[in-house]
Amino acid sequence: MISCSTGKGGRGGCGVGRSYFLVLAPLLIVSGFCGPTGSLWASERPNVLFIGVDDLRPEMNCYGVRNMVTPNFDRLARRGVLFDRAYCNIAVCGASRASIMKGIRPTPTRFTSYKTWAMKDAPDVPSLPLVFKQHGYHTVSNGKVYHNRTDDPDAWSEPPWRPKTSSIWWALPENRKLATGFRQRGPAYEAADRPDEIYPDHQICNKTLADLRRLAKLDQPFFLACGFYRPHLPFVAPKRYWDLYPEEEVKLPDNMFFPRDLPQVFNYTWGELRAYHGIPKRGPVSEKTARQLIRGYHACVSFIDRQIGRLLDELERLGLDDNTIIVLWGDHGWQLGEHGFWCKHTNFEVATRVPLIVVAPGVDGGRVCRRLVEYIDIYPTLCDLVGLPQPRHLQGKSLRPLLTNVVATHKDAIFTRFGGGDAVRTDRYRYMEMRAKKGLGPVRGVGLFDLERDPQENQNVAEKPSYGKVRARLTNTLRGILSR
Hints:
Blueprint: E1 28-29, E2 47-53, H1 71-79, E3 81-87, H2 93-102, H3 118-121, H4 128-134, E4 138-143, H5 173-176, E5 185-187, E6 189-192, H6 200-215, E7 222-228, E8 235-238, H7 239-242, H8 271-274, E9 276-277, H9 287-317, E10 324-330, E11 335-336, E12 342-343, H10 349-352, E13 353-358, E14 367-369, E15 373-374, H11 378-386, H12 400-404, E16 413-418, E17 421-426, E18 429-434, E19 445-450, H13 468-482
Parallel strand pairs: 1-13, 2-7, 2-10, 3-14, 3-15, 4-7, 5-9, 6-8
Antiparallel strand pairs: 3-13, 11-12, 16-17, 17-18, 18-19
Helix pairs in contact: 6-9
């Protein structure tokens, strides 16, 4: 388990010549607090800056990945509470985003794939931005917030915006020519000597900066959502970000093998990556390609770190930082060769674990919370922080008590699912079941990992007699969640 030792005055993770890069991470909250009576600690209802980062796992310096150049993630961790064990509820973008926005778990028939439309799967459930709009907030969406730009249109005060170049990922013409369709895309990575300004994420940041300046002049609070595309495939970023991670320093995971004694129904062929030019249709990638994929992922994280740093600087320049909640999240984790897997689409730790940092007035910084939290907790947390009533449909639990006391009681288990699989993660164990493709019917395979002894999930112990009582207890825990 990656841990974070960042404290007040801790290092920013930025080496000589790298100080112009800035950082932030997948779940971050900066706000005015509510007092015991529910009244706002600040004199005005706080704004919300809601930042989503596609395919971002906790691959930052403040999460213990010391080779990462992520000074803005680290900057935020020094100011607030870092959640070390936060999890998405489903490891695929469209479904995860719908679950976050609606505040309810995915099921075999709701929030199932990247193509999910929140307004179609849960039409009668008010979304997070809609509730804020209904309570006087001016709501704006830039970039990839929902998977589908026009999803949940009533939630926004203005039409959702995305850059016109969002479908052109490759900077080099020769690479763009290789993309002939959805099933045959261009190369999986590119390091072009091009300026930041030509990339969609820089343009999304520019639009959000302009909106901050405009919304700061309104006589009502704002809920401004900003969704970045990288580090989603393809791993394309300006060469100067690639140069932060020399090829000879890239390390491969030491568990690029399928977990021992785990049924093959849990195996995963990572078809998303195989659609890119130069990636084999079957079998593993070469060691050289694996290193380039990892290097490209890291470069994209640092590129997004820079964009988020620009947002933080503008908040400070406008004097909005003391009364703005910032939520920064990655929609799910991402596998970088662990178990021989790439992409997401599983219930393993690296696919479901996500970053979460909370910074708020009155909250001591430089602290780490190791309680289990999940993404359906975001919606009630934001309502709690700004003093809005929590809709009855919510299935999550506010994180506000953990901002005061990082060891406060929260949850004994969190739930994740994908396709035919459902899983629970407790303090020590991960228990997984696999059924048919839609998660219905008889159980076809069971996985149980003792994360205290086996944090990389390399050995399935579901069939070991010594774990019989643990398996029975976790089976009941999962059944209880599925029956709600």
